Amino acid sequence: MYEMVKGANVGLGSLIEGEADSVIVGLGWVSPTGEGDADVSVLLLDDSGKVRSDEDFYFYNNSCALDGSVQLLGKTPTGEGSEDRISFDLSAVPSDVTTVLITASRYESARFDELGALQLTLSDGAGEPLLRFAIDDAGAVSALIFGELYRRAGEWKFRAVGQGYEAGFAALASDHGVDIDDDAEETVETEPAAQEEAVEPLQPAADEQPRRDPEPDPPTTPATDVAASAEAAAPAPSVKRAARPRTSKKKVTLPRTPKKSLAENESWAGARLFPVSALKSDRDRETRATSVLLAVMAQVPEFGRRLTAGFGAHAGRMETFTEVSLPHGDAPRRPDGVIRVERAGKLWTALVETKTNGNPLKAEQVQAYADIAARRGYEAVITLSNDVALEGSPLVEVKIDRRRKNKVGLWHLSWAEVAHQAQMLLRHEGLGNPAHAWLLEELLHYLHHENSGCHGFHNMGPAWVPVRNGIQDETLCQGDPRALEAVESWERLVRQVSLGLGGELGRKVLPVQRARRGTDAVVRRTRMADELCRDGRLRAELRIDQTPGVLAVAADLRTYKIRTSIDIAPPAHGYPLSWAKRIVRELSEAPADLHIETLVEGDGGGPRGTLERLRPEPGDLLPGGAAKITGFRLSLFKGMGTQRGNTESGFIRSVDEAVNKFHASVVTHLDRMQTRRRAVPGPAAADDE
Question: Which helix (H) or strand (E) holds 341?
Answer without folding.
Answer: strand 337-343
